Amino acid sequence: MYRAVLIVLLVFHCCAAHAQGGRVHGRLMSTGTIVPYANILVKETRIGTSSDPTGRFTITGVTAGQHVLLIRAVGFEEKGIPFEWLNGKDVELGTIELEPSAVDLGEVVVTGTMREVSRSDSPVPVEVITPALFRKNPSPALFDAVGMVNGVRPQINCSVCNTGDIHINGMEGPYTMVLIDGMPIVSGLSTVYGLSGIPTSLVERVEVVKGPGSSLYGSEAMGGLVNVITKDPALAPKAAVDLMATSWQEYNADIGLRFGQKKVNDLLGVTVFRYHDPRDNNGDGFTDVTLQNRVSIFNKLSFRRPDRKVASIAARYVHEDRWGGQMDWTPAFAGGDSLYGESISTRRWEVIGQYQLPVPGKIIAQFSANGHQQRSWYGITPYDADQRVLFAQLFGTRRLGARHETTCGLAYRHTWYDDNTSATTTIRNGDVTNAPNVMPLPGFFLQDEWSMTEMHKLLIGYRLDHDVNHGVVRSPRLAYKWAPNGRWAVRANFGTGYRVVNLFTEEHAALTGARQVRIEGDLLPERSLNATLNVVRKWPGEKRYFGLDGSLFYTYFSNRILPDYTTDQDLIIYRNLDGYGVSRGASLNVETRVGKPLRILAGATWMQVFTTQQGVASDLFFAPKWSGTFTASYQLTPKWSTDLTGQWYGPMRLPVQPNDFRPERSPTYALLNLQATHKLNAQFELYGGVKNVLDFVPQDPLMRPFDPFDKRSMDPVADPNGYTFDTSYMYAPLQGVRGFLGLRWVL
User: In sequence order, which residues have a C-beta less than 8 Å from that of residue 9 and are 6 or more positions away?
Assistant: First the structure.
């Protein structure tokens, strides 16, 4: 009897094994980084699975024969792996390397709505830079990398000290808010020190939102947002090293290390940049590029908690010393009038963290704090400043019914600022005393995303902030999205922005170098109203892809705080605009793929940015009417690839002096870069190329460089036109053509 039972069990087991089919194993990686939660499907079947948090996967139920495994993951190119399964043997595919996608509408974004949604589902247009894109034109800092986004322009404001900011749709740096992992790094210098010194090996992606975002993020988010998303330590490579050098003797080391496992993971990043080769290729007696020493240390801890609740804390420290000036200048000449130089010593620390409360629903507490210490000399003028910013926020999201996703929160920002200028002094009983600027700014925000139908989505948002000087400030917004299918998407956005009076005079001193700052009257908060229409159309195909992303935008500014350069050549006078300002235009992005080898990304922006006072319109400085970006990549062989990248700019208005011999408009120019990359193996990658292939540099960026202290200015013989030394006529980098070579290693 037992033999019969045994035979039946064996037959049943064999039948079950045959019904179960074969198993396929593998692991997904990309340049040393784990790819979790990817969708994996056996083509022309309904058999599939997803990769686990370690990137591993197992598919069961595969029948005998030839098959193709399709792998789809957000941020990566789709990949097909042919394999054959024979009865009785598992198929081990080993490590499968996925190619990062430079632009992917399926990318998860958070900046537009403060919650994770796919880029294609977001009612707010968000542009994304992935490491795959900015590795095509490697740079020591993200400050330069964001220039790969159409309509976003890194602007160097001073030809001596090389301080710069980020312009979005022609608007200056103070109108752009910088966030790291969704938390603001708020300061007048955020677009410089918030983006420089972040190791690119630790960056997951950079999200850019054009237009006001004050309904979610408050003051400073008046013209746009740049959100740097760092990697999850649990998913980062164990080690990543990127070493690069240029023919100008610039050296950059970018190192990332991951420690820990299971419940606690630690991600450490160190960036070191050094340039100590003074050059004066344009022959004006001044350094073309500032000499720099910069060290940035970044550390992020993430904690694995039940139900994937969020918990992380990160810290960053930036130490930078740089100087520019006459070729013989050294720090020993600081403050003297024998040789002119501008030196800036910066010490900056940042701490950011978030914690999801252990309660039903999704309620997250976030905080960030930063301290900025500046010790500078601009010729004989010292500038010393200290700033501390504390930010805290508690917000939650909740689904109401089947179609409403509601987000609400409380926020508080406290800013303390002190410097050695009249901006932080007061007169009491006839005595001048120091009075640091203290600005508390509490706020409340609420938004609801209503999925009216499968095709229609409506977002309504509202924010209230209370400023000690201006009272309650309101910031509503409205967004609508219509997507009839996966190939069409239309978005209409209406929003408001504001910026409270918060003049950080170091920025102004760096902008002008030799000028002093004067503030006239009681400055009112700036306000903006924005409307944007965005249309996306895709023509996908198995071997070819073509996509268009076009936008029309219009922003109206009131109470704008504008600098007056012309009333007095030795002053910058700040006052509220007696009129209004406008930024309007159109942008178009094109993406095309022809087979696997060729991929082209290109974009162009036309805009008019101007102010109107008493019926007279004036173009804003450094705002070109035409600009564009492009990237062309070609995969020569599985191990060799080439990239051509660049930006081009049309004429822009420049700050000139009366009777200036230099043109008031810059010429049309392009900055082109060429790179070749050789993949040695799965861990090593060698790259090199040429930057600024056309060798374009601005002409005459300095006025009277032979008399930087104006000792002979206004002399009718030595200076018949009344010119004074000025450093603000700067619209492009002074670095000409140069070669670069680098090595990447990922474990």
Answer: none
- Band the pLDDT of 474: cuts 50, 70, 90: confident
Instruction: Transcribe 689-734 into DSSP letters.
Output: EEESTT----S--SBSTT-TT-SSTT-TTT-TT----B-----S-S
562 near 577, Cβ under 8 Å? yes
Looking at residue 746, its amino acid is V
Residue with tokens 């010790």: 375
539 C-beta neighbours (distance < 10 Å), count: 11
What average pLDDT score do residues 557-568 get?
Answer: 73
Q: Do the Cβ atoms of 55 and 71 come closer than 8 Å? A: no
According to DSSP, the β-strands at 488-499 and 471-485 are antiparallel
Tell me the two tokens of residue 306: 């039940």
State the Cα–Cα distance between residues 599 and 61, nearest whole angstrom.
37
The proportion of the chain whose per-residue pLDDT surpasses 70, expressed as a percent, equals 87
Question: Can you list the domains of the chain with their CATH numbers?
Answer: 2-97 (2.60.40.10), 108-228 (2.170.130.10), 229-729+741-746 (2.40.170.20)
Q: Where are the beta strands (DSSP E) in 435-486?
A: 437-451, 456-467, 471-485
Closest to 365 measured CA to CA, from 352, 376, 356: 356
Residue with tokens 């070191």: 272
What contacts 88, CB < 8 A, 6 or more positions away? none
d(CA 437, CA 389): 12
In order, the DSSP letters of 218-229 are: -TTTTSEEEEEE
- What is the layout of strands, in order, in the sheet containing 79-85? 48-50, 39-42, 65-72, 79-85
Quote the distance between the C-alpha of residue 654 and its chain's center. 26
Tell me the residue ranges of DSSP E strands in 357-455. 362-378, 381-400, 404-419, 425-428, 431-434, 437-451
**End-to-end alpha carbon distance in the chain:** 59
* pLDDT single digits (tens) 208-238: 888 877 777 877 777 788 888 888 887 778 8
What counts of helices (H) and strands (E) characterise the chain?
6, 45
